[in-house]
Design brief:
The protein has 136 residues and is mainly alpha-helical. The protein has six helices and two strands; from the N terminus they run ααααββαα. Helix content is 62%, strand content 7%.
């Protein structure tokens, strides 16, 4: 797969989140649903991610993954849908299932940005701006 195509595909999960958010906020507005703080946090994180994605592709990828993870566990959301998962007697809040779908697509498409994420060198390079350039 050529580099330009990979770069373009990296945006798909984020654009899916933005589109899903727009549809969900339309539903929230139309139905008069009370908007909790976590919904505002979701929108703020999407706005931050969109700005960072334009300036620094790598950080935009990481923020897209973080947005999906936070949404999967109901720490933020972009829609009024919240699901509860029961594992035996354990009740675990699980966010909107769409976050899981977007996260799965995100990891499949952008896995190359997560190789070595648990190492000190990865973060050292990231902080030294070696990975912050628009190189993808």
């Amino acid at each position: 797969m050529d580099k330009k195509l990979k770069q373009s595909l990296d945006y798909l999960p984020f654009l899916g989140l933005v589109l899903y958010s727009a549809v969900s906020w339309g539903t929230i507005y139309h139905d008069g649903i009370v908007i909790p703080v976590r919904a505002y946090l979701g929108i703020l994180l999407l706005l931050l991610t969109s700005i960072v994605f334009i300036k620094r592709h790598h950080i935009g990828i990481l923020l897209t993954g973080l947005t999906c993870l936070l949404g999967m566990f109901s720490w933020l959301f972009l829609s009024p849908a919240v699901t509860t998962l029961f594992l035996g007697s354990l009740e675990m809040p699980f966010g909107d299932p769409w976050f899981f779908a977007f996260f799965t697509i995100h990891v499949i498409i952008s896995f190359r940005f997560y190789i070595g994420i648990a190492t000190k060198g990865y973060w050292k390079n990231l902080l030294n701006r070696k990975l912050l350039s628009n190189e993808r």
